[in-house]
Amino acid sequence: MNQKANTQHIRTYSPMTKEALELMGLEIAAARKARKWSEGKLAEHAGVSRGTVRRIEKGHPKAEVGLVFEMASLVGVSLFGDKRRERLTSAREKAPLLPKRIHDTTPVMNDDF
Prior knowledge:
The protein is mostly helical. It has helices spanning about 15-35, 40-45, 50-55, 65-75, 85-95. The radius of gyration is 21 Å and the shape is extended.
C-alpha cells in the first residue's frame, strides 16, 4: 500500500519578528489596561473574540496584521512612530518610481569542463 507521507511545513520566525510581536502585544495589553478596558470590551470594539485579543496580546504570529494594527489604534498605541504620515507620503511618492518586477540576476556558473 502506497501512502503519501504526511508532511507539514513548520514555519519558523526570526528572533526580531518574535520580539516585535511580543512588544506590540505587550503594548496593546498595557494600553488596554490603562484605559481600564477588559479583554471583552476591546474585543467588542474590534469586532473579534476575547480569544483573539488574548492571542494578539501574547504576540501570536498567526494573528492578522490588520487586527493587530486596529487593536493598537483602538487603545492608542502608536504605529510607526511620530513621523508615520511623513513616511507614508514619502513611500507613496517613491512607489511609482520602483521597478514593477525584479529579476534574479545571479549568474549561472558553468563548471562543466
